[in-house]
Design goal:
Strand order of the largest sheet of chain A: 14-24-23-16-17-18-19-15
Number of helices of chain A: 36
Shape of chain A: elongated
Oligomer: homodimer
Number of strands of chain A: 33
Helix content of chain A: 40-55%
Largest interface: A-B, 47 and 47 residues
Structural class of chain A: alpha/beta
Largest sheet of chain A: 8 strands, mixed
Radius of gyration of chain A: 32 Å
């Protein structure tokens, strides 16, 4: 199908049946690329015989053609669309723009992936001065009809004609005060009719054009607006965040209107087939009577529960009225559909429905967003229910989202009293500074601080602010409100519907009113969200690690059975080592010895070592560091008993250990008993223009072999001590950093190997130490075949390898890297996810060449990419033996490894 | 032949004939690897029937075996050696250690390449208390015999037994004062006999061992000392300097003694078959009567000329006695041999000879060291003489030495009056600070200053000092003295035999005494050597560029005919461009636009541009820079008319253009009319941790496209102006620096291409601008196939590519790189000569992948490696189209390219 040759392209796809039962549906669920998610699922439901209001979808190809031809509708689209409209009129027995039986439609965007950044919906399209009369007559409810018309003008003008919604809200407010009314509902049909007249004049005033009366003109305006919303700033931002290609385009769904706002026997609602927060297998949803769909999502009124069971579990459920009580028959019918859809899609569904005068219509089904915790539980449950296989269960969990599971909880002992409570919409616990808008949230983030975005409710305009924040708190909205859905998708802690919260944007503060007390919190104040309970606290409250639940352990067990890539952790202390083991690390892939150097009780010994002017002085200082290092290593070896521990010898340039300000230098000179000048000169003499490319890594080992001698000795002696207590052989691996040339590796290796083996031999221990190297300089990857002759293992240091291969200093990259990603010059930050095209070539080269020399060469990764799922898949495919990442990322890496294995099995 | 299996290895090679004429010679000239240069050439001369004292060579394999087995002589070496000695005794009719007809031998080292760092010679070995009597009898000269013995003990003890020569010199001085004699020659045979006794007691005192009387013990002592001298510090230093592998080893030549010190009918000398300084075709040499060989080389007595012609050309030749006058028959015989040897070796020869009682012996021939000027002349002459081909002529010139030719001369207008004059031993002109020893010379060098090493005479101990100095001045010695030979080899300016020079090492000064005047020059004072004339000046005298002579032009013409690799120059100004053309550059490969930014009259406009806070402000500042850049480019285009000019757009980070000290910032703020704080903040905000990997290159073009716009506009407008005056189409090539990704190249390219073509089109000029990129980030080489889609050419920036591929900041490398080279971890400074193993892979990859996309992609190199001959050969083999280097290196590059072509033709 070619979008170029538009005359032969089919752009529209019908869904729905004739009254005769003849099913006219053309699309189905697997046509998401062409019809978008919403369109494909509407077709699928129609195909299954569910009560879907009929309609048709304009395909994504129409959108792409629109952009290709410079924002013009492709040839033939109008003819096809009008033919579809004719079928629709025929099926429903009504007519577009008719004052008798008017056809009203909704126009909704629907891309392949759900995209909150895009225009969502225009309702009631087809209303004009004539058809509003027909609607009033047919509904026997003129107030409803004029309200629909009023809403349509407002929505259409805002989205299509660029007349901001506030312009109409002013008019509405004026009308209410003129009439002395407080609520919209109190306005009469005549009031609304008058308001429609005012709305139309406002449009004429603002656009110099009358509000379009021709329903077809309305339709093309709406379709064009949907197409253009694909390239709105918000949509682009969201795509970037979610890695959605910009050449997918969006489809447009044009569907007959049904009305949940036709009275108390009408309603609209959303529901999940399982609990999206916990994953429990029970219907979970909310509805509002006499409302249009957007009212639920927007969170303006407090919605009601679906089932009696759900009502029971609510805090203040007594006042609530479940749909199960209110409309038992409809509820039963709905139960049938939701079960059918979950089985059909073999996944938890997020459903939208409308009840028009007691008649149920299904408006949407899609795989529901869920918390990670819920995702894990649902996947594990569905395996038990034989709906899906273990492999599918593994593939269903987004490894990036596991962070969320492992997010710390508030320390229960330190929680204190909350100032208020809302709905726990997206779990976790987080502290940060209050921000009332995107700009402020981004400012806090840029300053290296965490922000908590506090809003009445959120809308797609807040996406960037939510992205910049660590947590989200809203006063309005339920568990399915915009804030809740988006936060869960982002894996951010979120509390919604916190009704005590009174925000005064203008004064940049919010008040909590509970009883007599009034608490005022200003922008920039620290608060803490416990999004597991919904509680909000003043100040910063310490957190503790989440325990991993049973479902998670089961899923991880499946993943561990599958994956070939081992997962280790980067850990510098016995404490880190313990956490790493708890999270399932199979060893330590990077133990940075310099972190031990920085500890307060030893930094001065390190500084004396650096200030030493002769080898003897240096050795004396090293003697005092030796027992400390030995102690650290012993502790780590004990924690990791039996598992491999890779220790990297000293890496950073020596000047990192010295103070730089005059005051600090003065203080240290006094403390160490050396002259200010000597210390100052040393600091200056160690200054480097480009320390990243300077005198560090094994270059220090070449210049000052006694430093590496001390470290090797500490390792060997710690091995002996640890073996004594654990009675398990220690698997120590000594790693030489920043090697660029086999000769430097050989020189250092020879020296420390002799030393370590000498010590171990004396203690009657075998030669169980491996000596390997980091591959973190491009030259080392290029010469991996030669370097492998002296290395027992390779560990790719992809942080430095990225810096050198791309010529980007990570410390300085903020001046241009964000712009590069914004402009699309780089697909993402290469320090977050491996640059597979460039750095990846060197990693593959390093593995292949190294193994050419030593077929059983052990290879791993210890850069931060070791915890990034996309990068992990690359490392799996490149044939690495293990990845090493921060302890909290270990589960992510285990899952990502299993997924990589599954995907490579398929190929 | 295996050195491992020593019992079956042949370690010794005889040279010489029996009295019957039977030639026993086993070696020949092409066995240098096994016999060393000296041994192979002795064998060759013996083979040719020249009068060579017979002897034999212990092969380099014997030396390597010695080292392999931990400094032990290999099995079987003794048996073989004694068999050779027996033959030698038989041939000569004398006996080792005999008191009747004693065999005396010299023991000399001889490696594959001449190595001044090694032990040279022990003479008269075989003398002991008995054989000295035989020598006295046979020579009929007891004084001579005892003097030989005395010298032997001194030399042997110094070299083999580690009793320093000064110990013996004290005894000699004592003896002379006791006898009231001034010169050694005045001592009688009895005096010397007594002295021998004292010498032997000194040896016993110092070593607790009697001086060895057994000639065989003496022999093994001497052979071991030669072997060990291969690994002396000096030898190792020399090898490093000259890139001689340490696993070559040295041979040992054991040869029957002949005596140039048997009276006035005896002599010893050295000669070159052509003038080693100018290359003129005439015998040039020096001899001393009644002297041993070392006396000439050491430069202690002033030697005499070989020919009458040579005598005529001497400044003070009147007093001299040419060998041609002194011993006409011997001279004639010598003439015959030297002609034969030059024809045989097809190269200028450096000969050593001894005349023993009127009989001529040839002791050495080898290709003579020469100045570059001489090398060029000799090569060109020998082609005319049909001795060698043009190809051979080209291959004979060391391209590294061409620098010497292009070294500046003293500005004739500014020369003034010299304070003294010596012999112009190695040409050029240089100024520097007086240093009297190695330590001081190295200290000046380390401080970034030039040193002139001033010595009575130089010895191998001074090699490091000479290496550290820019020029050498000696009071003693002739054109073939140690200083002269080594300086020519190093390509350093050198003046020798400056007899007015009186050095007082202790007082760290020298005096020049001429007539009544006395000039005192202290260590650290600046002097200037004009080593083309031999004149010495006080202070620093400006220099001018050497003109290239006719021979050079002929040779370059041959090179240009041969080579395929084009040679361009790096030039930033019309002046540089003119010099580049004079030296034969075929275009400009790198014109750095930022150098123009730094000029005093425009730097402030550049700074205003940087301080601009809006795009408009920036554009205003750029408007004022535009005409200056346009003017620069116009000038360069005019100079290079018709030849390609590659202009690199702005590359360095902006902070390089701002001042950094508080005083400078204050001054500038005042000048620009901005506040100190604003300027200071800007400077601080632009600070980078690793500027090498920071916001520079095309990253500036991405952030501030208006800067590149201005530069592109300046180029296009300059093309129009230059075309008007030269009426030749300008070949402009715009080069985008620091590209890592095709998208950034595409974005910048699209923008400037449109701009430039717009301007050129308006002027009616074609689209003759190429737009290409530097390949200087490893990723760019890895992704060269993709990048080539947007590049008309690649220019490898091997400076930055080396920094990033090796992870070495050039600015910081001095802290460890010298140590790396010293330890042999890197073969040489990778910024001087391309790291072919590492960076070279990326260059090859870049060319291959780029050409896969665009078979006719133009590729070049513009790093400093473009002027390094070894690197040039690599670039030739990698298939590059051109190299670009500094204008002065252009001839070097032209020659190196031709040599690379010749060598690749052979393969």
């Amino acid at each position: 199908m070619s979008a170029e040759n538009s005359s032969s392209t089919k752009f529209t796809y019908f869904f729905g049946s004739r009254a005769t039962g003849e099913n006219l549906t053309e699309g189905k669920a697997d046509m998401k690329a062409l019809l978008g998610g919403k369109g494909a699922n509407l077709a699928e439901m129609a195909r299954l015989g569910l009560p879907v209001p009929p309609g048709f979808t304009l395909s994504t190809e129409a959108c792409l053609s629109y952009y290709k031809s410079g924002e013009k509708f492709p040839d033939g689209l109008d003819k096809e669309t009008f033919a579809r409209l004719a079928t629709l009129e025929e099926v429903l027995g009504c007519k577009f723009g008719s004052s008798d039986k008017p056809l009203l439609v909704s126009v909704r965007s629907g891309a392949r992936a759900s995209m909150p950044g895009m225009m969502d919906t225009i309702l009631n399209l087809g209303l004009n001065d004539e058809s509003v009369v027909g609607l009033a007559k047919n509904s026997e409810n003129p107030r409803f009809a004029w309200d629909c018309y009023r809403r349509f003008i407002q929505m259409y003008s805002d989205v299509v004609l660029n007349v901001h919604v506030s312009q109409f809200e002013f008019l509405l407010e004026d009308m209410k005060s003129a009439r002395g009314k407080h609520r919209d509902e109190d306005l009469t049909a005549d009031d609304l009719k008058e308001l429609v007249g005012k709305y139309k004049r406002k449009v004429l005033e603002e656009t110099s054009q009358a509000f379009p009366q021709d329903p077809k003109e309305q339709l093309w305006g709406a379709v064009g607006a949907v197409f253009r919303s694909w390239n709105s700033d918000r949509a682009i931002h969201y795509r970037k965040m979610e890695n959605i290609p910009s050449d997918w385009g969006t489809a447009v769904n044009i569907q007959a209107m049904v009305f949940g706002n036709m009275g108390e026997d009408s309603a609209t609602g959303v529901a999940f087939t399982r609990d999206p927060s916990s994953g429990e297998r029970r219907l979970f949803g909310e509805y509002l009577t006499n409302a249009q769909g957007e009212d639920v999502v927007a969170g303006i009124r407090t919605p009601q529960p679906m089932s009696l069971d759900q009502k029971k579990r609510m805090n203040d459920g007594v006042k609530a009225v479940a749909l199960e009580e209110k409309m038992p028959a409809v509820y039963k019918e709905f139960l049938k559909y939701q079960e059918l859809l979950e089985k059909h899609y073999r996944d938890m569904q997020d459903l939208e429905f409308t009840i028009e005068k007691g008649r149920l219509f299904m408006l949407q089904t899609r795989n529901g967003k869920r918390t990670t915790q819920a995702a894990v539980r649902i996947a594990v449950d569905m395996v038990a229910e034989q709906l899906i296989s273990k492999d599918e269960a593994i593939l269903r969990i987004n490894p990036y989202s596991l962070d969320q599971l492992l997010h710390p909880r508030l320390d229960p002992k330190k929680k204190g009293t909350p100032i208020t409570k809302g709905l726990p919409a997206s779990p976790g616990a987080v502290s940060g500074r209050v921000a009332f808008g995107t700009a402020q949230a981004e400012a806090f983030k840029a300053a290296g601080e965490k922000a908590i975005l506090v809003r009445h409710e959120t809308s797609p305009e807040d996406i960037q602010g939510m992205d910049a924040s660590a947590g989200i708190l809203t006063a309005l909205g339920g568990m399915t409100s915009h804030a809740a859905v988006v936060a869960r998708g982002m894996g951010k802690s979120c509390v919604v519907g916190c009704s005590d919260l009174h925000i005064r944007y203008k004064d940049k503060l919010f008040e909590i009113r509970s009883g007599k007390e009034k608490i005022i919190v200003k922008e920039g104040d620290q608060i803490t969200l416990d999004a597991n309970s919904g509680e909000v606290f003043l100040g910063v409250i310490p957190t503790v690690t989440s325990e991993l639940n049973k479902d998670f352990e089961i899923l991880m067990g499946w993943a561990d059975e599958l994956r070939k890539l081992k997962v280790r952790a980067n850990a510098d202390t016995p404490h880190d080592a313990r956490i790493a083991r708890q999270f399932g690390a199979e060893g330590i892939g990077l133990c940075r010895t310099e972190h031990m150097f920085f500890e307060a009780d030893r930094i001065d010994a390190v500084r004396s070592m650096i200030l030493a002017e002769t080898q003897e002085e240096r050795e004396r200082a090293l003697e005092s560091i030796l027992p400390m290092q030995r102690g650290d290593f012993t502790g780590i070896f004990r924690e990791m008993k039996g598992l491999p521990v890779t220790i990297r010898l000293l890496d950073p340039p020596l000047h990192e250990f010295l103070p730089h300000s005059t005051t600090e230098i003065e203080a240290l000179a006094l403390k160490l008993g050396v002259s200010f000048d000597r210390l100052d000169n040393k600091t200056k003499s160690l200054h480097e223009h480009n320390p990243m490319l300077g005198h560090r890594g094994c270059r220090l080992g070449v210049s000052f072999p006694e430093i590496y001698d001390m470290q090797a000795r500490a390792i060997a002696e710690a091995m002996i001590e640890a073996t004594k207590s654990t009675r398990e052989p220690v698997q120590a691996e000594i790693m030489i950093p920043l090697v660029m040339e086999v000769k430097e590796l050989r020189m250092i290796r020879d020296r420390i190997e002799k030393l370590v083996h000498g010590i171990l031999d004396k203690a009657g221990l075998g030669k169980q130490v491996l000596i390997g190297t980091m591959i973190e300089i491009p030259r080392a990857a290029l010469l991996a075949d030669v370097i492998a002759t002296e290395a027992d293992f390779f560990s790719f240091g992809t942080n430095d390898l990225t810096q050198m291969t791309l010529g980007i200093s990570r410390d300085d990259s903020n001046r241009f890297l964000p712009e590069y990603v914004d402009l699309g010059l780089l697909p993402e930050d290469p320090f977050s996810s491996l640059d597979q095209a460039g750095v990846g070539q060197l990693v593959r080269m390093g593995v292949e060449r190294g193994r050419k020399t030593k077929p059983d060469l052990k290879t791993g990764v210890c850069g931060e990419h070791g915890g990034d799922p996309r990068s992990i898949e690359f490392f799996h495919n490149a044939g690495l033996d293990y990845v090493s990442c921060s302890p909290y990322r270990v589960p992510t890496a285990r899952l990502a490894s299993a997924q990589a294995q599954l995907r490579s099995n398929r190929n």
